[in-house]
Amino acid sequence: MIDQIKKELKTYLETELSIDNLVLEDAKKGNADLAIPLFAFAKAWQVSPLLVFEKFQHVLMGYKGISKIEFMNGFLNIYLQRDVLARTILDQINQEKANYGQKELSQKETVVMDYSSPNIAKSFGVGHLRSTMIGNALKNIYTKLGYEVIAVNHLGDWGTQFGKMIVAYELWGNDEAIHANPITELQKLYVRFHDAEKEDPSLEDKARDVFKALEEGNDRYHQLWQWFKDESMKEFMAMYDLLGVSFDSFNGESFYNDKMERIVKMLDQKGLLKVDQGATIVELPNDLPPALIKKSDGATLYITRDLAAIIYRHETYHTQKILYVVGNEQQLHFKQLKALTDLMGYHFDIEHINFGLVLVDGKKMSTRGGKFKRLEEVIIQAIDDAKNAITEKNPDLKNKDDVAKAVGIGAIIFNDLKNERHLDVDFNLANMLKFEGMTGPYLQYSSVRIESILKDQTIHHALINYDVFLQDHYYDVIKLLDQFPMMIERAKDQNMPSVIARYITSLAQAFNSFYGKERIVVEDEYIKQANLYFITQIQTVINEGLRLLGIQTLKEM
């Protein structure tokens, strides 16, 4: 609401005073709500800042919603009518509840989000978590703002690595061990292949030949590939179920095998293809390196497949906007993809939602090198550690297993989302499971603390003393609650779930600070009702923020 007042007031002042680019900001000092720096106007008009203030003051006199205007150190400070603001903001949250901050677009807009996308025949690792949870949070945020989101899991289910996997399986595979624990054993074979090819480079040629045969329809190789995929999907779906993540499509790389020739023909018809040392390329503008469309042996490449995918999505979902939640290292690829689609005349709105690495003990994980943490093992450990902490805090809690699951998984998700996504994330279970600081358990516990106060209490709206909210320590929190819709918009504009994570952390901290100063359930019924009403709206916003991040809220812990 304050943001809307700010916009309207800025337009009003610029019109009335015939000025441009007025700076109207949140006041940084005192109890004012808004501030206008007057120095630039004083310099332009060659008068003192006080005379500028008087000119502004004359225009602002009687403006609806302002209670006081003052001059302070070259700034015009504006005090809004607290009683109107506080009541309006709290009542809006109370009326809209979980829908607070929700929007409807005037015109339907579909967004395709491409995220998670693990490689089959490999375990779902901690490294896959970033794309999965950033994508899931953005899906929730865009959906809340009225977009129709198509969540796509572009599985890594094709490529020369499957030639390597089949060769490794045929050389060293133990059927009994593999059937007992398919993905773990297959991953061991993959690591063994890469160790062995260092000593025997001919293995790489064998893998290439096997993959070529797979592409050409070799029945045995195709059965093995399908088996690898089926077993992988079982593990992936178990992980997605644990994390509370779902998708609209699992069309992976193999889905586009029969769609790439059309793309090559389209590029040819546009006159974009060139042959360079036997390879087929497209030269790109803006000093970008050429896009390699086909190798000299005629095999298509990753970018050809992505072209087929983006055009399929455009034609199937009728969208121009596609978000790719993929690591920092792929920035050049998506610049090339955007340039290629522009040359083809599509002009898609392609956004690369890049993110940093997950580091364990400061080191990058690698499947080939065997430095790899299975997410399932980490989640089990997090749940176990959470259960121990909960048992210590609340030994009589009835549903400890369910609570521990929510806390352990929530801690992992929040740790991933709390920092700006382009930064690397340190994966330290002990730190992320703490009940204080910027952690998932801290936020869940803040909501549970409010729940415990509200338990067995009834709010009577007619008895609420709204004058209570005029006090600074109430009003400051109410202004923070007012920012939630703006924070959702900002998270969408920047494609940064961390905006929500940091905001709800600030709100939880503000509540806990308030709770340390003020008794909630007091003898005065009118003040008690105001307090209960106040903390109910805080809980609503914290819980909805957690939901947007993909974190479960709790009644007890």
Could you describe the 3D structure shown?
The chain has 557 residues and is of the alpha/beta class. The chain has a domain of 79 residues: Arginyl tRNA synthetase N-terminal domain (Gyrase A, domain 2, 2-Layer Sandwich), CATH 3.30.1360. Helices cover 55% and strands 10% of the residues. The chain contains 21 helices and 14 strands. The strands form four sheets. The chain has a four-stranded antiparallel beta sheet. α14 packs across α15, α17 packs across α20 and α19 runs antiparallel to α20. The chain is globular, with a radius of gyration of 29 Å. The two termini are 34 Å apart.
Strand content: 5-15%
Distance between the termini: 34 Å
Number of helices: 21
Biggest sheet, open or closed, and with what strands and sense? 4 strands, antiparallel
Can you describe this structure in just a few lines?
The protein has helices spanning 2-17, 39-45, 49-60, 82-96, 129-144, 160-172, 175-180, 182-199, 202-215, 219-243, 260-269, 302-317, 331-343, 375-393, 400-417, 429-432, 440-454, 472-482, 484-494, 498-517, 525-549; strands at 25-26, 34-37, 66-72, 75-80, 110-114, 148-152, 273-276, 279-282, 291-294, 321-325, 349-353, 358-360, 363-364, 425-426.
